[in-house]
Amino acid sequence: MSLFFAACSHTDEAGHAHDAEGNHVTPSNEAPRLDYTVWTDKTELFVEFPVLVVGEQSRFAAHFTVLDKHKAVTEGSVTVSLIKGEKGVRQTVDAPSSPGIFSPTLQPVKAGNYQLVFDIKTPQLTDRIVLDDMKVYASMDEAMRELGGEEGDDGSITFLKEQAWKMEFQTVAAYTNEVYDVVHTSGRWNVAPSDYQSLIATSNGQVSFQQKSLTEGSVVKKGQVLMTLQSANLTSNNLQSEYEKAKADYTQAKAEYERKKDLFVSKIIAKSDFEEVERKYQVAEAQYEMLSNGYSNGSKQIIAPFDGYIKSIKISNGGFVNQGDELLTITSSNSSILEIDLSAKYASQLKNIQNVWYQPAQGKWSDLVQQNGEILSTGKAVNQNQPLLKIYAQINEGIEMPEGSFTKVDVAFGSKAKAIVVPESALLEDYGKYAVVVQLSGESFEMRNVTIGKRNGSEVEILSGLKDGEVIVIKGAFQVKMASMSGNAPAHGHAH
Predict the structure, then answer these.
(1) CA distances (Å), 265 to each of 29, 129, 261, 262, 285, in order?
(2) Mean pLDDT of all residues in the chain?
(3) Is the distance from CB of 29 to CB of 67 less than 8 angstroms?
């Protein structure tokens, strides 16, 4: 997000200062007060302070907000510097005076235009904010003459940082993005065929589940023993007997192989005799390894080949199976197939699909291009039983929705265009008309009517009412609206 700031000047009643606990108070002096709001890609700074005058102390109320989740900075240090060339004054405070608010003090020594620099350091981030052309006045009278008197009410909504920090609140700058013509439809989640695996019985035996909670939908981990096959009580095809025989045959064949190998190296036996012994040894080794794979205490273990969940179980606990019988099917969620329904009137557009937006979880949007997915196939015909065309897309991300469930889908066709867009969550609707809450400065907001255009997944095109880069509220907008209607919101010069 590009650096942006706004400033206004006003007398004491038009601004607010903070006491040691961070509470807003009305100053007793008559010094005009300034406030600035600056956004970086990490933080928002809303700072208030008395106008800078030579020899006078100016105490800053620097409200720092982490933009991610819009929470107050509760630890770390802030250094404020007033710099001209290589000279200036500076002060560092090592902790906030109250959550989110740092209160350094500067006393300028010479009039002129300076840079006002804020450096914040916390365990999670560092950031620097620079305000250019910050004027230091030679006297308070000069400042009063230039900045004038009290500002009138501009009609904006006051919503305090302390209120926003205590709730789910988020802002973002309106931005320009590509938009498409879309068809709003629905789709159904299916697991990709490559993510299925059926496990079969590798021997005859009685099935014993290794977990009481082994049911369809159970989560399994790679290498986890799911069930065992026991054949100790069988008179034929007894796994333990076969294992012991294979082990004995392997041991004997190995010893014979090693003995004949030495004789062959010494050229005592013919090559054909050695190759026959070697063949028998390899057969015995393969047979033994096959039986010993998953063998434990007279039973054969059935092990999960990957992380996933059980889609179906074909046998009950205690049942008998023959070698080769299907036991259960495991599936993962590494990728999914999205089956999209589309009206037949869009058949001519199927070769011109640009993107697909879908919901991998309730209320969350993703798109095919960003997740490196692809269109696998598109339907070519419809009939009485299937009046809609089908589009199959491979989705390469984890899907939280259960298999077979439906999702909202936006299918993009045609050419793209550039437009100002905002997240769908920023819109407030009232009888078919839309508005957004624009943040004018740190604690000043405005309800702005907008005209919307195309919807591409979670983004909505703004045709009028908003400029690129203006900061809007995308979480908490309704609370700001209610504050404007309640009549209880403090005025710009509030105290509490």
Answers:
(1) 106, 81, 6, 5, 22
(2) 85
(3) no
